[in-house]
Design goal:
mainly alpha, 2 helices
Amino acid sequence: MGGHGPSTEWGVDHASDYKAKLGVYMFIVYVLVYAGFITINVINPKLMAAIVFAGLNLAIVYGFGLIVLAIIMGLIYNYLCTKKEDELNK
């Protein structure tokens, strides 16, 4: 049984170092923000019950904030990586 090759030709990715570094930096930023969430829950869990926005408590706002932050960071990562690929892989 002879498989098939890739459906597209993949060349050398000259932007791979940039993408790796950017990914690590963005991961560190997200981990720090997430660590803040965990720290509040460990040190002062009652603070998470505080109403902070539109009748929602800090736990809900912070949790949804983490989700939105991940989506935004993913979009930023995609934009910056695509831009760098276009610049370097000509």
